[in-house]
Amino acid sequence: MKLTEISTVKALCAEFGFGFKKKFGQNFIVRDSVPMDIAENAEGLCALEIGPGIGTLTDCLCQKCEKVVAVEIDTTLAPMLETTVGHHDNLKVIFGDVMKTDIKALCEEEFAGKRVAVCANLPYYITTPVLMHLLESGVSFESITVMVQKEVADRLCAEAGTSEYGAITVTCARYGKVKKLFDVPKSCFYPMPSVDSAVVTLIPAEKEEIFCKDEELLTKVIRATFNQRRKTLVNALSAEIKTHSKAQLAEIIVKCGFREDIRGEKLTLRDFAEIVNNM
């Protein structure tokens, strides 16, 4: 059974009476190289997969990983997954909402301290929340490799000062280095989405060591900055940070070596940390 053939996908959907659900952003991969290349990033490790769908990436992961745990929100896929990947004895499928899942507890229970990589084809509508949920889980993943909308991939890898640069860019930099691996045209999916995708990987081991005295305040400062990115940094922060007056915030920004009228989109993670350290 070749899960990357459209004829196979259509036959499985017909056999199990499966209907694509727009609310889950379901688009299945129909090009061999894509799941194989994603799975290579977890070779020799354990893998946590989010949204296995019909099991296309899952099958590749099971061939390369010691153990695979896949979290799927759509329970109607259960009989199909049993048919497509149920023969793998190193696979466990958990049906539930990953956003309501305690990722750290799940990894401790299922992987018992072993090295774990995340691999996923993330639905466009929930990409950022899922990434943040993983990054803030407290789990030291070996890597997080995900397929996302190309526009999102560009934001994740953006440089400070560009239009794509945003809160998610800075936040990911707190955990590691994001690299784009390859683009994935929309023709590689069934049903075909309206936009192209790209695969990116985040490697925590390449994280830049930056000291920040207050991680919670850093999060607040980053969010405040990009919630009102068209405003100057002083104005954006003064709207959210009530522990300091606008004049005090301006003084801190200048003390850190920036113009008083600078916009937050010009700052790197290190710059934000420096501002927080002076607050």
Describe the SSE topology.
Layout: H1 6-16, E1 28-29, H2 33-39, E2 46-50, H3 56-64, E3 68-72, H4 78-85, E4 91-95, H5 103-111, E5 116-121, H6 127-135, E6 143-149, H7 150-156, H8 167-173, E7 177-184, E8 189-190, E9 197-203, H9 215-227, H10 233-238, H11 246-255, H12 269-277
Parallel strand pairs: 2-3, 2-5, 3-4, 5-6
Antiparallel strand pairs: 1-8, 6-9, 7-9
Helix pairs in contact: 2-3
Question: Low-confidence segments, ≥5 residues, pLDDT <50?
Answer: none
Mean pLDDT: 94
* Distance linking N and C termini: 60 Å
- Helices and strands, in order, run as HEHEHEHEHEHEHHEEEHHHH
Number of helices: 12
Question: What is shown here, in short?
Answer:
By secondary structure, the protein is α/β, with parallel strands linked by helices.
Question: What would your notes on this structure say?
Answer:
- This protein is α/β, with parallel strands linked by helices and 279 residues long.
- The protein is 38% helix and 17% strand.
- It contains twelve helices and nine strands.
- The protein has a seven-stranded mixed sheet with strand order 4-3-2-5-6-9-7, sandwiched between helices.
- The model has no long low-confidence stretch (mean pLDDT 94).
Features:
alpha/beta, 12 helices, 17% strand, 7-stranded mixed beta sheet, single chain, 279 residues, two-stranded antiparallel ribbon
